Amino acid sequence: MTSGERDRKATLRTRLRAARRNAVMPPMTAEVLSAVGAFEVSAGETVCAYVASAVEPGSLTMVEALAARGLRVLLPVVVGEELDWAPFDGRLRVGAFGLREPVGPLLGASAVGVAALVLVPALAVDHGGVRLGKGGGFYDRALRLSAGPAVALVRDEEFVPSLPAEPHDVRVDAVLTPGRGLVRLPLL
Fold first, then answer.
1. N or C: which end of the chain has fewer CB within 10 A?
2. Is the pLDDT of residue 1 over 60?
3. Measured on CA atoms in the order 107, 111, 117, 118, is the torsion positive or negative?
4. Domain annotation for the chain: domains and CATH numbers
5. What distance in Å separates the CA atoms of residue 34 and residue 28, rounded to the nearest whole number?
6. Is residue 122 scored above 90 in pLDDT?
7. 99-110 in b/e burial notation, b at 16+ Cβ within 10 A?
8. pLDDT score of 57 more than 80
9. In the 3-class helix/strand/coil scheme, how is the chain assigned residue by residue?
């Protein structure tokens, strides 16, 4: 990636974060449950999810709805430069970067590998499946260990035709927005 592309990525992150500051974030509960059905994820199977911050699509209600469906929900815990995973049992604490994370036992970074579905936050996603995250690479490293489909949650206007990508960026299999619902990627 050239320095110009890297600058474009940084500029996009700044612009997208600014746009989210005053936006109402969608809870995404109904959309996520619909995606679970579309990917035929059954009770007892594992879904990796996240507890959204105030400036991310998603909600604690979304996570609780997954658990209420009988799914085993794993949530990320930041450990150093990696995402570890712990089961969601309703109890949360504030962890690294001010993110809410589960208090249960850590299962290791490879726990994402058993997930039938992985829900990931994003600032934007393009039609080819390129996901623009916050820039730390945590989800790119985690998704390399995943066998299940990765679905990024964004606002409608954050699903865009094209984004800059670096070789380490892991593409997502689908995007989920409030207005469009589940869109499998890449678009042809």
1. C
2. no
3. positive
4. 3-184 (3.40.50.10420)
5. 10
6. yes
7. bebbebeeeebe
8. yes
9. CCHHHHHHHHHHHHHHHHHHHCCCCCCCHHHHHHHHHHCCCCCCCEEECCCCCCCCCCCHHHHHHHHHCCCEEEEEEEECCEEEEEECCCCEEECHHHCEEECCCCCCHHHHHHCCEEEEECCEEECCCCEECCCCCHHHHHHCCCCCCEEEECCHHHEECCCCCCCCCCCCCEEEECCCEEEECCCC
Q: Considering the entire predicted model, what is its pTM?
A: 0.95
C-alpha to C-alpha distance for 99 and 182, rounded to whole angstroms? 26
Encode pLDDT of 127-169 as tens digits: 999 999 998 899 999 999 999 999 999 999 999 999 998 888 9
CB atoms within 10 A of CB 11: 11
User: Which tokens go with 74?
Assistant: 């794993």
C-alpha to C-alpha distance for 90 and 75, rounded to whole angstroms: 11
Contact 161, 127 (CB under 8 A): yes
For residue 87 the two structure tokens come to 């089961």
> Using one digit for the tens of pLDDT, what is the confidence trace for 98-111?
899 999 999 999 99
Structure tokens at 185: 């990627």
Angle between helices 60-68 and 29-38 (to 10 degrees): 40
